[in-house]
Specification:
It is a single chain. It contains 13 helices and eight strands. Strands 1, 2, 3, 4, 5, 6, 7 and 8 form an eight-stranded mixed beta sheet that branches. Helix 10 runs antiparallel to helix 11 and helix 10 crosses helix 12. The chain starts with a helix and ends in a 9-residue tail after the last helix.
Length: 321
């Protein structure tokens, strides 16, 4: 494989800014926690690829933080490797969100796993919190303020992450095609590994591929034996959905590890913190969607801790046969 082809296979985070006063490179420096940028692995006019290695307790993954100022600079190379999209906008002006409009069709077509809308902070005289949140709900983004006016209560037992820390957290929770699991975590991440393989074999075709090829095989079972069962699950999903989205999948794996871990205070507190985080994420969904989501999470968690699929068959609300 040539060096050029190898480069294309490395997943990328497309970073763009619709605010002329805020450059994409500034956000990248915050993401990688550095006052200076690394040497780009590649540069084509205004587009630049910056190397970044995600390294957490579960895995390492080489990714590229790719500066793409506008949709006009999008190429097939970027499209094929794009797994996350981070867009900055100017919240101080009323039409701040309108400048993101050209990106909507691109995002809908490529369906990256992580979609984050970023601003310094929402503004009552510009784009309000309500307007930003409604836009995010309409386009499946997560809103992150780099410098929110209202910080989480320090006395809160379950403080939410904010600012660039939340962006990094979301990127860490994605299932990258370049992931390399660390020793000691491979067995507990059967679902995650299967999801990586599925996405690697069918990159960025969530809304175009047939349901069977998009399905997530059950841990320890041949794909062929589960094809009929998983097809019945995925046929109920809207385009762009997976059996369990990447972030929820990682949450489930962490819950599974905490459940199987030592019964100490730290583990106990982290378990409840994680449960509350997952509950908060689901609380913004419509009732019926939340109900289906809860069933999927429960089933996936059961499988992650070694449960038998037959034992939970028929526990759904009728979504599946």
């Amino acid at each position: 494989m040539s060096e050029e082809n190898a480069e294309i296979t490395i997943p990328c985070v497309v970073v763009t800014s619709c605010d002329s006063a805020f450059k994409e490179e500034e956000l990248i420096k915050q993401i990688i926690s550095s006052s200076t940028l690394p040497e780009p692995t590649k540069r084509e006019e205004s587009v630049a690829w910056y190397p970044w290695t995600i390294n957490n307790k579960y895995y390492t993954a080489d990714v590229r933080l790719c500066v793409v100022p506008s949709t006009f600079q999008m190429s097939s190379e970027i499209a094929q490797s794009m797994q996350a999209f981070v867009a900055y906008f100017d919240s101080t002006v009323k039409d701040g969100l309108e400048k993101l409009h050209p990106w909507i069709s691109v995002v809908e077509d490529l369906a990256p796993e992580v979609l984050i809308l970023v601003c310094d902070r929402v503004c009552e005289n510009g784009v309000t919190r309500h307007e930003a949140q409604q836009w995010c709900l309409s386009h499946a983004f997560e809103l992150v303020e780099l410098n929110p006016q209202d910080l989480p209560d320090e006395d809160d037992d379950f403080p939410e992450s904010t600012g660039v820390k939340r962006i990094v957290q979301a990127l860490n929770a994605n299932v990258w095609t370049s992931v390399e699991m660390k020793d000691g975590h491979n067995q507990g991440f059967g679902l995650m590994s299967s999801l990586v393989a599925s996405r690697h074999n069918n990159p960025h075709s969530h809304s175009r591929q047939d349901p069977a090829s998009a399905s997530l095989p059950v841990e320890g079972s041949p794909v062929s034996e589960e094809a009929e069962h998983t097809e019945s699950i995925t046929n109920t999903d809207t385009p762009g959905d997976t059996v369990v989205d990447a972030m929820t999948d990682l949450d489930i794996q962490e819950l599974a590890n905490l459940t199987a871990g030592d019964a100490d205070v730290d583990n106990f507190e982290r378990l409840f913190t994680k449960l509350k985080e997952m509950k908060d994420k689901a609380s913004s969904m419509p009732h019926e969607q939340r109900k289906v989501h809860a069933e999927k999470v429960a089933k996936a968690f059961w499988m992650a801790i070694g449960g038998d699929d037959d034992e939970i068959d028929g526990l759904s609300s009728g979504e599946e046969s």
